[in-house]
Design goal:
The chain is about 35% helix and about 20% strand. The chain is an alpha+beta fold. A five-stranded mixed sheet has the order 10-9-6-11-12, sandwiched between helices. A hairpin with a 5-residue loop joins strand 2 (about 50-55) and strand 3. Helix 4 packs across helix 5 and helix 7 packs across helix 8 (about 285-295). It is elongated, with a radius of gyration of 23 Å. The relative contact order is 0.14. It binds zinc ion. Zinc ion binds near residues 36, 41, 78 and 83.
């Protein structure tokens, strides 16, 4: 299969220097030329600082030395302002002391990992601390979101599944401690390839699934589901609804099937099992976003640019929010690794 988007080698070549990364961010942030972040003046000059050491203190009052890499800065030349800033000021990139080249490499790793990548793997590939890798991983994953909330149309498959948890073999019962996940997939059409959306939900019940469908699918769409009771009211709600009866061992009847969404579930589960071992429920929506985003943009060469754009311009996911509780050490998705 042809590879789309930027390979890791492309990224290393294009973004191997801080200068190149800054120029890339700069173009997103100031398409009409750099403007002072304080006064808006375009009389701005560019200069470079050398690598320095800086002491940082955490909440517990412990201090440690961190290396502040050589940086490219801008200075406003407006008399009375003279503000200094960088292409990353006020963005998520400024929250770490990492060189932009490391960030870009991390983005490249996530874009290219079809089944996702663990922070452990990222730690090895980037040569950074585990904690750093874990935060990069989560922050980038957060930026992997399709902003456009347009309704799916044409032929749409809807389904739900369970992720995580354990099977109780003794009681031969369904999964417990599992998280229900709902998804819809718009099948490939003349307008483009298939697209998926998936979210953690409370349960696969009629009220939940009806909401998921109403919020994501146009009423003139044709919906394919299995025979689960959660979809019993779709016809009443005005959707064209076709059912495959899995309990009767019926999987495909002509074009009536839910193979698309089921393939997505298995891709997601393989990724979760293969790369992550276990995913904490708290972070599940991010993993689902990541997998959907890669799936939806698999033929789009702009996926890298889009992710960087989301990171620069989107709201920063603050370290504090992310690790509010419990601590990352105990909550890391594969702490057992
Ligand atoms: Zn200024």
């Amino acid at each position: 299969m042809a590879r789309h988007g930027l390979s890791l080698i492309d990224i290393e070549q294009a973004f191997g220097t801080e200068e190149n990364c800054v120029r890339y961010l700069q173009a997103f942030r100031w398409p009409d030329g750099v403007e002072c972040l304080k006064c808006g003046s375009k009389r701005v000059s560019k200069f470079q600082t050398n690598e320095t050491q800086r002491e940082i203190t955490n909440k517990k009052g412990e201090t440690r030395e961190v290396k502040v890499p050589a940086r490219i800065l801008f200075q406003c030349n407006q008399p009375g302002c003279r503000h200094q800033f960088s292409a990353t000021t006020g963005t998520i990139f400024a929250d770490t002391h990492l060189p932009l080249t490391t960030w870009f490499k991390a983005i490249g790793l996530l874009m290219n990992a079809k089944k996702g990548i663990s922070a452990k793997q990222m730690e090895r590939d980037l040569g950074v601390h585990y904690r750093t890798a874990w935060h990069l991983n989560h922050r980038i994953r957060e930026a992997m979101q399709d902003g456009d909330g347009s309704l799916f149309g044409g032929t749409v498959e809807a389904d739900a599944t369970f992720v995580g948890g354990k099977y109780d073999k003794r009681r031969k019962r369904g999964p417990y401690g599992k998280q229900a996940v709902a998804g819809v997939i718009q099948r490939k059409s003349d307008e483009g390839h298939s697209k998926v959306r998936a979210f953690p939900v409370e349960k696969e019940i009629i009220s939940v699934m009806s909401t998921v469908i109403r919020e994501n699918v146009a009423t003139d769409a044709e919906i394919m589901t299995d025979e689960h009771g959660a979809y019993a009211s779709l016809k009443k709600q005005g959707f064209k609804h076709e059912i495959v009866s899995h309990t009767k061992e019926e999987w495909v009847r002509g074009n009536i099937h839910t193979q698309g969404i089921e393939n997505f579930w298995s891709l997601f589960k393989r990724g979760v099992v293969g790369s992550f071992h276990q995913v904490s429920v708290k972070h599940l929506h991010r993993y689902l976003n990541e997998f959907s985003y890669r799936f939806n943009n698999r033929e789009d060469e702009k996926i890298f640019a889009m992710t960087v754009f989301n990171l620069v311009m989107g709201s920063a996911l603050r370290y504090k929010v992310l690790v509010a509780k419990p601590s990352p050490a105990s909550d890391a998705p594969f702490a057992s690794e």
